[in-house]
Amino acid sequence: MKQLIFCLMLSVILISCGGSEYVVKYNGDEVEINSLSEKLYEGELLALTNEEMIILLKYKDNKTDTNIKHEIASINFGKIGSVTVKGYSDKEWRTGVWLMQIIPALAIGLEAGAYTGEIVGGLAFGLLLTIPGWITYLIFDAASPDPPQWNSDVNDKESFKQLNIYARFPMGITPAQLEELLRYYNQKEVTKLD
């Protein structure tokens, strides 16, 4: 029985060692753009200009269905319904709180109850031990911000420009940089989206 409990606790500890997949990257963040024409585009935010958003679209190749194709595209400010920056609504901390605080506290309480022969008392003791875990859960949940987004209902170019901090080129993209990217992705010009 002790070996089983040890194996279970060890597996819980090892499973909970995973952290957030989101790490700030040197290139732009992934964005989801909903156009006013009800189309959805996903890709890396490259840059913002006064009139448009330039993104690197990523999609699967229809021929092989495994190769990822890239295309540099732009969408006019007036055609964007909403923009959501992906990767910032990460709630993966929940797994660690459950596996490292709440479940072990309950297990300790049940083990104490089994040891003393008072299962109900052990369960009550285990629930009491989970209080710090619930406090941690509430603090983390309150501190996790909603993903950054922009909505066309606001129709404010200043708040739209605040998305620059998530772009690969936050200070804007020069024509030379754009030409180099187009050449890298074998494009002659930027694709216009609607």
Record the SSE blueprint.
Elements: H1 2-15, E1 30-35, E2 40-48, E3 52-60, E4 68-76, E5 80-85, H2 93-116, H3 119-129, H4 131-143, E6 149-151, H5 157-161, H6 175-184, E7 191-193
Parallel strand pairs: 4-7
Antiparallel strand pairs: 1-2, 1-5, 2-3, 3-4, 5-6
Question: What's this model, at a glance?
Answer:
By secondary structure, this protein is an alpha+beta fold. The chain has helices spanning 2-15, 93-116, 119-129, 131-143, 157-161, 175-184, and strands at 30-35, 40-48, 52-60, 68-76, 80-85, 149-151, 191-193. It contains six helices and seven strands.
Q: Could you explain how this protein is built, in words?
A:
The chain is an alpha+beta fold and 194 residues long. Helices cover 40% and strands 23% of the residues. The chain has a seven-stranded mixed beta sheet. Strand 2 and strand 3 form a beta hairpin. The longest helix has 24 residues. The protein starts with a helix and ends with a strand.
